[in-house]
Amino acid sequence: MKIEKPKEWSLLVDEVMEKYSPDELFQQMDRFKPIDEKGCYLHWDELRRRRDRYKKPDLAWLSIKSARRQISKNIPLKDIDGKPFSLCIPDSLQCLLHQIDKMAGGNISAVDSGIVNKDTQHRYLVQSLIMEEAITSAQLEGAATTRKVAKEMLETERAPRNKSERMILNNYRMMRSAVNAKGLPLSPELILNLHEIATDGAIDNDAEPGMFRQSDDIVVRYDGETVFTPPPAKTITKRITELCEFAAKDHSNAEADEFIHPVVKATILHFMIGYIHPFGDGNGRAARALFYWFMLKSGYWLFEYISISQLLRKAPAQYVKSYVYTETDDQDMTYFIDYQIHIIHRAINELIAYLKEKQQSYYDFMTLLEDSGFKSTLQPRQLDILKKACREPGRIFKATVIKNEYSVSLNTARSDLEKIAKLKFLVQFKEGRELLYVAPSDLLEKITRSK
Fold this sequence. Notes:
Elements: H1 9-19, H2 22-29, H3 44-47, H4 57-71, E1 72-78, E2 84-88, H5 91-104, H6 118-140, H7 147-156, H8 163-180, H9 188-199, E3 220-222, E4 225-228, H10 236-248, H11 262-276, H12 283-297, H13 309-312, H14 316-328, H15 334-372, H16 380-391, E5 396-397, H17 399-406, H18 410-422, E6 427-431, E7 434-438, H19 443-449
Antiparallel strand pairs: 1-2, 3-4, 5-7, 6-7
């Protein structure tokens, strides 16, 4: 990954002052903003290639950097050389943060969700979408298992057959732990615990689950090339302690000495775990878990339903570049923040589209049931099972899968399936000692005939 590092500020100023006349400097200095006309937060390596737009790239870069420095601020977290990281939130990001607040800080009713109440939504969505994040987060780290096989493993609670499946199961358990820990303060112990859950039986580089690395013999590679060397192992405990102190400080209070938006702060936690690289393996999984933990802790409950890893996996090079851009440009963390906030915004919009699709499907199905007269005899959970049976003729339902999907007891899951089978909407059969239920191919016709 060849990225040209921009010149240091003082050197850039000297070179531009010597190269251009005062009139040229005056004309250009107010021409550019922190972002381009499309709202992109460009790195020097990107800007220098756009000769059609930036005919004098060094002068344009000086103008852009000047604009950024005016709204930039340092945070109390430092790089290997003791230089503080900084962030700069231009109007384009402020706009996205406002939209994220409206969509993710409220509730799903923001998408006209007369579909069901929040408690029912939680039951229907959380399990499957936490599974989605667990699967794609592990795939980002190299797990080679299809989504279908992985979901089958999680739903049926079967033991993992290989390391890839172990990674996915561990990620699922880690995500559940992060959700349950949202009321706790961040501590080294919490970070170690999440890492231990994530890497149990699925860890490389001779690393130990739930233990900070003791070796400096580690680099971050992408596409066969070294892109980053983490800070020394002897500094990890101090850096993690400082990160926990940063997380504990209230930056959203009106009386705070400085404001940092909660979504930005969650993204900083994500970035810093990747930068400190406190573990020999599993840093990405731990970083994403901490991001979710802080978002939930900050009241963005919709993030129980959102998978960011699914989008990160589609463009892994951009994910890596956002780290490299930060390291090569005065530790300006805005590159990573900008990339991550765009990912979050897309993930929320995809969830809303998913919910609208499910909502319409739900309404269509409920209309059919209204006509059949069976709606009043079935609970919302049982109606949802029946809807899935209508959508997938031939699907086999197991009590263990229903238990996990709806967070109910095994007895309740069995009762649900038995009740639907008594209405002749599922066909019961035995496989060994286990009772299974299959969706008949003519289920919709059966419901229609039962009017």
